Structure formats: C-alpha cells, structure tokens
Amino acid sequence: MEETRIIDFDDATPVPTQALPAGTLLHDGKFGILSQVGSGGFGITYLAKDNYLDRSVVIKECFPEAFCFRFGTQVSVNAPRLEAQYKMTVEMFMREARSIAKLRHPNVVTAHQVFEENGTAYMVLDLIEGRDLADIIESDEEDLSPRQVHEILVKVLDAMSVVHGNDLLHRDISPDNILLDRWGSPTLIDFGAAREEASKKTKAVSSMLVVKDGYSPHEFYISGTTHGPFSDLYALGATMYHLISGEAPADSQTRVAALTNNEADPCVPLVGRFPQYEEAFLAAIDLAMRLAPKERIQSAAEWMGLIEQEERKKVATVKIPDKPGLGKTISELIEETNKHVLSTPIEPAVVEQKPIPKTRETSRGNAPFTPEWIEEFNRETREKAEAERAAAEAAAKAARDAAIAAIKEEARLAREEEARKRREQEQAAHQSRNILDWVSRKSG
After folding, report:
1. Band of pLDDT at residue 217, cut at 50, 70 and 90
2. Which of 21, 111, 200, 365 is the most buried (most CB within 10 A)?
3. How many CB atoms lie within 10 A of CB 125?
C-alpha cells in the first residue's frame, strides 16, 4: 500500500520522521507517550495514556515533516521563509480539531482535547480497539462476507453525511483510516488532512495537498481544482473496491493517462465480476469512482438512496415481460389475480351452537312462554355470526386490493428501471468524451 505523500511544496525537502520518545509527558503531565503507531505527511500518531483518567488514548501531533524538524521535544521549521506556512498549518490543525470535536456520530472517532505545546499542536482522540481494513485486506485468514461489507459501507456513508453536513472534507479516506472494532462496526479516523468550508469549493488549498495513490481522485493531484464531497466519495469507492476485489485500484493519474491515449481504463469495473454481491451495489461503487467529478455520485445521501432503492426491490419481485404492450400485460395480471381471489370460496364462520337448557313452559292462554334470557342469547349468536362473515369478506377484499397494488407497484418499478438503464447507456456513450474534455481543460 502506498504511503501518504505530500505534493506541491516548492520550497520543502522531506526529512525522516522524528517521533517523541516513549515516556515523554505532555500538557503538564496529563498525558504520557507510550509508543508511535503511525505517521503521515502532516502528523505523527502516538499511543498514549491519560494519567488523570487512567485510560489509553491516541494523540495526533501536528508535524509537517516536509518543512520542520525536532530538537529535543521542540519543533522548529527548516528555514525562516517557511515560518508563515508552518504557523498556518498549526492554526489549521487547531481549528480542524475543534470542528471534529463537534461531530457526534458512532462511526466517527471522537476528539476530546486539543492543545499547543513544544512549538506545535496536539489532538487527543479515542483509542479504537480493533483492526483497520488494510490489515484485513492483507490478511490471508480473514475475509468479510458480502453482508459485512454492505453494513460497513452503509455505516461509513452515514458518517460521511454528518462530516459533509458540518462543512468538512476528510480528504484522506483509505483502508488504513477505517477501523473495525471487536463487533465489526467501522470507525472513520485520521482527519489530519481534513478541510473546512467544503461547501465553498475552495481552490486555495493547493499548497497543502495530500494524496494516496489508488485512493485519491484526480483533482487532488492538480493545483487549483475544485474539491467537494464527491472527492471523498471517490476515495471511499476506491477503498470498497480494494476490499471487495482484493486489489488496489489503479491511481487516478494512470487512469486519466490511459484514457487520454485512447487506451482501456486500467481500473476494471466491479460489475459482472463478483456474483456474490448485488449488481446495483457494485454499480454504485463503480459510479463513485468515475474520473470526471460531475459524473460521480455527488453526496453520501445519494449513494445511500441507491442502496435503499435496491433493497426495496428485493422485498417482492414480479417479473414483467420485456415486450411492447406493457399496459395490456398489467391488465392481464390484475384480471388473473382477481379471478384467483374471487374464485376462492369464503368459508362462513362456524358458530358452535350450545344446547339451550330446557325450561319449564308456562302457558299464557294457548301461547308458549320463552324466557327472556333465551331470546337474548339467540340474538347475540346471530349478530356474532354476521360480524364474522362481514370480517371474512373484508379480509378477502383487502387481499385482492393488496395483490393488485403490489402488481402495479412492481410494474412502476420496472418502468423506472428501464428508464434508468436507458439513461446510463446514454451517459456511457458520452463519458469518454466528457473525461477527455475535462482533462484537456485542466491540463491547458
């Protein structure tokens, strides 16, 4: 797997990562560094202990390795000309930590505290006990079932809807930034490259670009391009592509170069290759990974809508013949259903006739006397039988109506599906030309 890389630093020279040693105390002794667990272009991640609460936490240190170094515990820039850029990076780190702390979602890591020290800034995060998707992909002993993959994607999409709803972009989604806890629930971590004001589609972050080959969309490689939720969704699609196929997708730069040279896209679509998954589920991932931003899924809500639409179709399906005269076919199905339901006899309710106790008759002249309680019992028995027959007739009518409604709904869904397929075919016919036009404009 490719490591996080930093691009577009004209005056910076990468240096080896310099982590704080184990035992270092931070924030007046509240936190103690235990070990380094990771590093990227803008920060170093540590396993640490909260000495006040006696628990393990994760601490992320702002450390843009391309233009700073450490002397003891103090962080300094490589050259005075980089001082302003370094200060801006620390301020952005602090601001973004506060923004992340406002996110409330079970599948987003929680930021508890942020503070400045040693000439830089630190963020205190939850420690998630589990494994990241990168470990699972690389493991030969562990495979996730299609159902588990489906649940992971749905939960991460729900988390992304909250992130984007708070006007943030993650900008570093990849298998190593999605952790699965002991129950298999995903947590989105490492917002170190996050960007605020996503809705403004700012082009002013070109000096802070972070890319991961295979996962970053093409616009992350080009200075001055527009970024948005569709950029994060490309990276999420690439992550799911790797999880399902077992192979990292070709990076977007290579894909664009191939299409520019009229060659086949080296990123082979998932659709048609993995029968254990629903085709619509795979098609949505392929759609999220289209090269041209305007051709992709534009929001997490849109992606979840595609998944929910497919799930609704699986509840009940009626095959509609693919031929002209669809209206006639529907009428025939309704008529056939009516005949079947109407031909089913409605069994009258059987009322147990209890023997009427014999009562001594008392004559009033020549007319026999019937006790009043017997007349009341007979009347209640008749009324109960009539109510049960009426209920049976109502149930039969409801069954007929439900069957007819189901057939009409399936016919409507079939028409929508046909229309959707036609639209996709029309879009596919113009996709290559749109991508080449987009690349030409950006390259020019």
Report:
1. very high
2. 111
3. 23
What is the tens place of the pLDDT at every residue in 232-252?
A: 999 999 999 999 999 999 999
Q: Report yes or no: 313 and 343 within 8 Å, Cβ to Cβ.
A: no
**Rg of the Cα atoms in the chain:** 33
User: Do 246 and 371 fall into the same domain?
Assistant: no
Structural tokens at position 398: 């409801």
CA distance 425 to 431: 10
Q: List the CATH number of the domain containing 38.
A: 3.30.200.20
d(C-alpha 267, C-alpha 273), whole Å: 13
**Which residues have C-beta within 8 Å of that of residue 153, sequence separation ≥ 6?**
236, 240, 307
Cβ atoms of 126 and 109 closer than 8 Å: yes
Q: Please give the pLDDT value at position 338.
A: 60
Distances (CA, A) of 287 to 56, 132, 434: 40, 25, 15
pLDDT in tens, 125-138: 999 888 999 999 99
* One-letter amino acid for residue 93 of the chain: F
Give the C-alpha distances (Å, rounded to integers) separating 387 from 21, 87, 375.
83, 82, 19
Residue 39 token pair: 């590093």
Task: Let me know whether 111 and 158 are in one domain.
Answer: no
In a domain, 238, yes or no: yes
Model's pTM, two decimal places?
A: 0.64
- 135 and 117 in a single domain? The answer is no
Please identify which residue in the block is written with the tokens 């992130």: 163
Helices 300-313, 229-245: axis angle to 10 degrees equals 50
Q: Which residue range is the domain that position 63 belongs to? A: 5-125
pLDDT of residue 237: 98
Same domain, 163 and 275: yes
More confident residue, 167 or 180: 180
- From residue 168, alpha-carbon distances to 12, 21, 29, 227 in Å are 27, 33, 32, 11
Q: 229 and 150, same structural domain?
A: yes
- Tally of domains in the chain: 3
